[in-house]
Amino acid sequence: MVSLWGTLNAIDLNAGTIRWSIPFGEYPALTAMGQTGTGTDSYGGPIVTQNGLLIIAATTYDDRIRAFDKLTGDLLWEAALPAAGHATPSTYMVDGKQYIVIACGGGKNGAPSGGTYVAFALPD
């Protein structure tokens, strides 16, 4: 699988090397034709939690939020959003429970616009 557009890269700043690099996002029309791992353009950044989750929702056309293992790049979780999350997620705590929230605005490069905030509870 070769990325046609976007990749997500993790750089080891201590070693000065790329720890991992993966295609980031999918074009749904290409996925429907059996092409995966294409990558897509993205706008927004990730956050990293204390327990090592890298969470990002910046892809334009597949409207997904994803959690990766920050050390390996393995995809641990993903969920559909009502529109592209072209924003950096935020995290907050309520009564000892951690949540992630993302603004789903979309609207770039012909993608549908949105206007919703979506929150997810992290597992204990």
Number of strands: 9
How would you spell out the order of helices and strands? Answer: EEHEEEEEEE
Biggest beta-sheet profile = 4 strands, antiparallel
- Number of helical regions: 1
Please name the CATH architecture: Beta Barrel
Q: Total domains, how many?
A: 1
CATH topology tier name: Lipocalin
Provide the structure class.
Answer: mainly beta
Architecture overview:
By secondary structure, the chain is mainly beta. The chain has one domain (7-121): Lipocalin, CATH 2.40.128.630. The chain is built from one helix and nine strands, in the order ββαβββββββ. The strands form three sheets. The chain has a four-stranded antiparallel sheet with strand order 3-4-5-6, with no helix packed on it. Strands 7-8-9 form a three-stranded antiparallel sheet, with no helix packed on it. The chain has a two-stranded antiparallel sheet with strand order 1-2. A hairpin with a 6-residue loop joins strand 8 (97-106) and strand 9 (113-121). It is globular and about 40 Å long.
Summarize the structure.
The protein is mainly β. The protein has one helix spanning 28-32, and strands spanning 7-12, 17-23, 47-48, 53-56, 64-69, 75-80, 90-94, 97-106, 113-121.
